[in-house]
TrEMBL record:
It comes from Nocardiopsis flavescens. It comes from the Bacteria. SUPFAM superfamilies: lambda repressor-like DNA-binding domains. InterPro entries: Cro/C1-type_HTH, Lambda_DNA-bd_dom_sf, MLTR_LBD. Pfam families: HTH_31, MLTR_LBD. Residues 35-82 form the HTH cro/C1-type domain. This is Helix-turn-helix domain-containing protein. One of its GO terms (molecular function) is DNA binding.
Length: 291
């Protein structure tokens, strides 16, 4: 049974504890609210302000599991806080483990401060959970996929359009990297895991994957430099730094360019025009993630 008073009090406390700078927003000189405004939290949680306001005022329907997950992520809750939120709403908390997609508050705080840098948070199956705005401008919205296609490993071997985002001379190496990475995860999690299912699915749908998989390669690691192909900027050579959250098997990938390089200038241009171009299809060309 839902504890409406407890749920409302907990939401108010968490909202008032979360500061604008915690989510990458400027505080502003006229801010009087302690913590975040309700409308700001509603945007973070992907819901209407009216719906969220009713929860804080002990009204409205009992939130669904999906809605609670969105609230927990939007309010940057820890796993213990997320579980408490679910119990207040009368639901059993989601199971913890390697399939858990709740991003830790620490990784979210870092990502929220990277508006001017391509960055993304991914699972151990290379499923994108969250992107910075410049990451969307660079590669498109890779959080929009569903099913097996959420993993770039699956898309790499089944969707030719995915390869168009990477330099052709790197394709053979990337195929080996993706297969070796999946082999490591499948061995760690077992054949009955989501990783094991992905292996079975790819073996049935991709001749190239079967050939690379049967080579039995392990430990094939990606280089620190990744070469992306952007529709109107061309090739960008970016260094990739990885921050691992070992408790939830999530990684934060951050892409930067050497100062003074051509790619650094291209990133600067992308930071200015990219978000708008991603919405409008700049120069009449299709931009990744807009179709």
């Amino acid at each position: 049974m839902i504890d409406r008073a407890g749920l409302a009090a907990f939401l108010r406390h968490r909202r008032e504890s979360l500061q604008p700078e915690d989510i990458g927003l400027p505080r502003g000189q006229r801010r009087r609210t302690s913590g975040l405004r309700r409308e700001e939290v509603a945007v973070l949680c992907h819901m209407s302000t009216d719906y969220y306001t009713r929860l804080e005022r002990e009204r409205g329907p009992r939130p669904s599991v999906q809605m609670l997950s969105s609230i927990a992520q939007g309010l940057h809750l820890s796993l213990d806080e997320r579980d408490h939120l679910f119990r207040l709403a009368g639901h059993n908390p989601p199971p913890r483990g390697t399939d858990n997609e709740h991003i830790s508050p620490g990784l979210l705080r870092i990502l929220d401060r990277l508006d001017d840098t391509p960055a993304e948070i991914v699972t151990e199956l290379a499923e994108t959970l969250r992107q910075s705005p410049l990451s969307v401008a660079l590669t498109g919205d890779t959080t929009r996929y569903t099913g097996p296609a959420r993993s770039i490993v699956y898309r790499w071997f089944t969707d030719p359009a995915t390869r168009g985002l990477y330099a052709p001379e790197d394709h053979e190496t990337l195929s080996r990297v993706f297969a070796a990475g999946l082999r490591k995860t499948a061995a760690l999690r077992g054949s009955a895991s989501r990783a094991g299912h992905l292996v079975t699915l790819l073996r049935s749908r991709s001749e190239e994957f079967r050939q690379v998989w049967d080579d039995q390669e392990v430990g094939v690691l990606p280089g620190t430099v990744k070469r992306f192909i952007h529709p109107w900027l061309g090739t960008l050579e970016l260094d990739c730094q990885v921050l691992l959250d070992p408790h939830q098997s999530h990684c934060l990938l951050v892409y930067t360019a050497a100062p003074g390089s051509e790619s650094h200038e291209k990133l600067r241009l992308l930071s200015v025009t990219g978000p708008r171009a991603a919405r409008t299809g700049r120069r009449g060309r299709t931009v990744p993630g807009t179709v």
